[in-house]
Design brief:
With 74 residues, this protein is α+β, with helices and mostly antiparallel strands. It has one domain. It is built from two helices and three strands. The chain has a three-stranded mixed sheet. β2 and β3 form a beta hairpin. The chain is globular and about 40 Å long. The chain starts with a helix and ends with a strand. 7% of the residues are buried.
């Protein structure tokens, strides 16, 4: 399973690689239903911009280090 730390490390690696053209780049990850829920909750509760109660989303979209990331449920 991909952890939040794995996600951050992967994104940092891509963001720091000057050989990868990042404009318009969107990364897409797929997680099984259980881990997708865990990732969504983790991102919600660690976000400084959370408003209201947690509502699980089918598609998690975040921007991190200037990269767009979508996390889909398998």
């Amino acid at each position: 399973m991909m952890t939040y730390e794995d996600l951050i490390n992967s994104i940092k690696e891509i963001a720091s690689n000057n050989n990868i053209h990042k404009e318009g780049l969107t990364l897409t990850y797929e997680l099984d239903e259980k881990n997708h829920m865990k990732m969504d909750e983790h991102l919600f509760y660690t976000s400084e911009e959370k408003d209201g109660d947690f509502v699980h989303r089918d598609i998690i979209e975040i921007e991190f280090y200037g990269l767009k990331i979508k996390i889909l449920k398998k």
